[in-house]
Write a structure and sequence with these properties.
The model has no long low-confidence stretch (mean pLDDT 94). By secondary structure, this protein is of the alpha/beta class. The chain has eight helices and seven strands; from the N terminus they run βαβαβαβαβαβαααβ. Helix content is 43%, strand content 14%. Helix 1 packs parallel to helix 2 and helix 4 packs parallel to helix 5. The chain has a seven-stranded parallel beta sheet with strand order 3-2-1-4-5-6-7, with helices on both faces. Helix 5 links the parallel strand 5 and strand 6.
Length: 263
């Protein structure tokens, strides 16, 4: 059954920039109340505050929390606050859009640092494992109910590799595996879990990848649309997929790339 999103709640992990921010804006325009978690310096916090007020301009509630989304303590502190803010209605949409990890090579060239165990573990914990921990705690707290949707942002890195992307690629592969397992375990509760595989998208996290400018040119030439994916493309996909109570679309890696991987 197709339903309206107006009046429901969305939690965005990584809400202050890139895809997370675009999704929060799109859903606010649709009348969805926003809970945003981000981890920023003073400049990032100021931008997040501006975005929050813009969302409130659509007549919805918007609450942003500057905290480490990969920390167990953050979950412990925020979940009671989420329960209070949502007033017992639960969270309809959860978006995991955390992009924080190392870009060091596994085996550095002469004079170049190599990836350490600590950096590998941090990358996988933030970009992959935290999805599991948030979903566990939200479900246990009764905030995820029948009809809820959980989305994780992945990339072609889940199956492909490139220089400097090894740890992130491993995290994306793990993230997709977590999505499948969560989909299996939450299906009896009517909760859908999917990964959205965006195409190459100009975001602050992409700009940190060495050679990202060449990657962007290559992806634009490959894409049948002759342009890169935009954060707004992903936001529209979340809005579209969330308009049903059905959990029958679950456990998938859904391409939102304009056909980038077709050619």
């Amino acid at each position: 059954m197709i339903t309206r999103l107006e009046g429901s709640w969305c939690l965005v992990l990584g809400a202050s920039s890139g895809m997370g921010l675009a999704i929060a804006h799109e859903l606010a325009r649709e009348g969805v109340h926003i809970l945003g978690v981000h981890f920023d310096t003073t400049d990032g916090q100021e931008k997040a505050a501006v975005a929050r007020e813009e969302m409130r301009g659509h007549g919805v509630e918007a609450h942003f929390f500057n905290a480490n989304a990969a920390s167990a303590r953050t979950r412990e502190e925020l979940l009671p606050r989420f329960e209070e803010l949502t007033g017992g209605t639960g969270i309809r949409i959860v978006v995991h859009s955390l992009a924080f990890g190392t870009l060091l090579p596994y085996v550095g060239a002469e004079g170049e640092d190599s990836l350490t165990a600590r950096q590998m573990n941090m990358t996988l914990d933030v970009m992959a494992h935290s999805l599991v921990y948030w979903t566990q705690d939200l479900f246990t707290a009764g905030l995820l109910r029948e009809g809820a949707k959980v989305y994780a942002m992945t990339s072609a890195g889940g199956t492909r590799v490139m220089p400097h992307y090894g740890a992130v690629s491993a995290a994306k592969a793990a993230l997709e595996s977590h999505v499948r397992q969560l989909a299996l375990e939450l299906a009896p509760s009517g909760i859908a879990v999917n990964a959205l595989r965006a195409g190459v998208t100009p975001t602050p996290s992409m700009e940190r990848i060495p050679g990202s400018d060449r990657l962007a040119v290559h992806a634009r030439d490959l894409n049948p649309h002759r342009r890169l994916t935009r954060p707004e493309d992903v936001a529209e996909a979340v809005s579209l997929l969330s308009r049903t109570d059905s959990s029958w679309i679950t456990g998938n890696v859904i391409g939102v790339d304009g056909g980038e991987l077709l050619t």
